Amino acid sequence: MLAPEQIFMRARDNRARVGIGLGNDASKVKGTALSAMKKGYAEVIIFDSPDEMVKALAKGEVQAAVRGDLSANETMVAIKRQFGLEHILRAALMQPKGGKMFFLAPVGVDEGGDIESKMEIIRLSAKLFASIGEEMQAGVLSGGRLGDMGRSEEVDRTIREGLELEAVAKREGYAVEHCQILIEDAVRTKNLIIAPNGMTGNIIFRTMHLVDGCVSMGAPILNMDRIFVDTSRAKRCYTDSIALASALVVKGK
Questions:
Q1: DSSP letter string over 55-106?
Q2: pLDDT for 68-98, tens place per residue?
Q3: Are 161 and 154 in contact (CB under 8 A)?
Q4: How far apart are CA 104 and CA 193, in angstroms?
Q5: What CATH class is the domain 1-85+224-253?
Q6: Which homologous superfamily does the CATH classification assign to the domain defined by 92-217?
Q7: 125 φ, ψ to 5°?
Q8: pTM of the full structure
Q9: CA distance 68 to 59
């Protein structure tokens, strides 16, 4: 089972060089950097420009980066340009109150719009789990129970996609189960939750993190060969995000 202590222990073991973005809330970012270094999670370098931080990441001047409170749009544009990406796929690490941690994807409103995109998330997530010594157990969500088929064309479509995604993923050797609409059951046994699309995933993320107070360490970008953890500017502190970024660094790379 993935636990916060596991992330923090790996971060202290790695103590990677991690960049963090500084936007409007200088005191929060600087306090975060100091806290992370005091706890031994990372050597933290602060950047006030998305372009400069992303270039430093590409050159290996930092081993990982955290968006902090830099502009989301400007930072994603810089990443796409620097790393030649047509799209970005993220998985947010969630820690519900009293529950086990899991990754949630897709979480960007323009991510995971079809079966192939969600299969890409599953393939890349399997590599992420392997890098931290965990076996991926994925649960695919859809818009209803199997018994709801016929009530709505949209519900029917998401259920068919969920079943097809389960079948394709299993053929490729991944542990994936179609959990229907039963997210409350899926989060008890799965460490990766696949939402029907990015809009739904974003709503789940916002409901859990911004309404109910669920902790989210951040959302690693899956489809790039460097470690970049996206964050919400609504977070009170980015210390755990820095720890996650440091923990994901593979020694020797």
A1: HHHHHTSSSEEE-TTS-HHHHHHHHHHHHT-S---B-EEEE-TTS--EEEE-
A2: 999 999 999 999 999 999 999 999 999 988 8
A3: no
A4: 5
A5: alpha beta
A6: Isocitrate/Isopropylmalate dehydrogenase-like (3.40.50.10750)
A7: -65, -35
A8: 0.93
A9: 20
